[in-house]
Amino acid sequence: MRDFGYQIDQKITDVMRENSFTVSAEIIPPRNGAEQSQLLEGIEGLVSSGSQFLAVTKGAGGSLRGGSLPIAQTIKDHFRVPCIAHFTCRDLLPQEVENQLMDHHLFGIRNILALRGDPPSGQPHWKAREGCYNYAYELIHQIAQLNRGIYLKRDGETKESKVQEATDFCIGAAVYPEHANPRERVDFLKRKIDVGAEFAITQMVFDPDVYGDFLEESGSFQIPVLPGTRLLTSREQALRMGQRFSVKIPDWMLKALPEKHSPEEQNRVMDLFLTYVEKLRQRGAPGIHLFVLSGMNLARSFIQTLKSNME
């Protein structure tokens, strides 16, 4: 197939297959109307420090952050590293999902993290509009159907269309090792794998044993599960993150963190998270996926140090 001048991306599953341990990062698009140059400079720094692939989120909590697709396309074409484009189906009809996925396909995007998407902030009783998906596995199933060349039937068609040219997406899923119901956290992963998920990234996790125990619980499901985390710079921040996202911060990490954030404590923070990454490796992690919500320079320095230690 012609690529229309856009580079066809390398699949993340191939990157992980070729490397015993991957180092990657996840970035957030700037708010609509915000300056983009700072983000592009940050991406350049993450790539030059050794990130093997990047991911671009959609706006969390219904926030105004467009640009995920063009930023992902820029990362793979300009910065020449693979990129995962987050794709949320919240409030999209299946026809709209198919149209947007074809935009990704024609731009050469091949790695999709398939998500339902957060409900808008301040709307605790939000429900999907009629005809839209309620669960991410439904989106994963639709993408897998496109990979088989099976498209939606259009209005006015009286019979099933013949099989059309298949897409070639590498489908990722989000997983939740600290979901309140132990059975559901594994069942949800199984359901996503059954309909086509090929890799997974966890919610923010800071305890290597929580991650490792989840791998053991879901050990019969043979897809790579990347632990997602962020660099914590203080005990104060760690306690806030743990409460906000309902995730466990182990005592050994809390004790090792400085009480308050301080630039002078950067090396201490990096040493702590180097230890954390080693513990994840011992529990079977195929890589580390760093959420860069802020502190781009710290993330870049950490990735550079981690890659140097791995050589």
Distance between the termini: 38 Å
Can you count the beta strands?
8
Quote the beta fraction.
5-15%
Largest sheet: 8 strands, parallel, barrel
- The string of secondary-structure elements, in order, is HEHEHEHEHEHEHEHHHEH
Helix content: 40-55%
Description:
It is a single chain. With 311 residues, the chain is an alpha/beta fold. It is built from eleven helices and eight strands. It has an eight-stranded parallel barrel with strand order 1-2-3-4-5-6-7-8, surrounded by seven helices. Helix 5 (136-147) packs parallel to helix 6 (182-195) and helix 10 packs across helix 11. The mean pLDDT is 91.
List the topology elements.
Layout: H1 12-18, E1 22-27, H2 37-49, E2 53-56, H3 68-77, E3 83-88, H4 94-106, E4 111-115, H5 136-147, E5 170-175, H6 182-195, E6 199-204, H7 208-217, E7 225-229, H8 235-245, H9 251-256, H10 266-282, E8 287-292, H11 296-310
Parallel strand pairs: 1-2, 1-8, 2-3, 3-4, 4-5, 5-6, 6-7, 7-8
Give a nutshell description of this structure.
By secondary structure, this protein is α/β, with parallel strands linked by helices. The protein is about 40% helix and about 15% strand.
Provide tags for this entry.
single chain; 311 residues; alpha/beta; eight-stranded parallel barrel
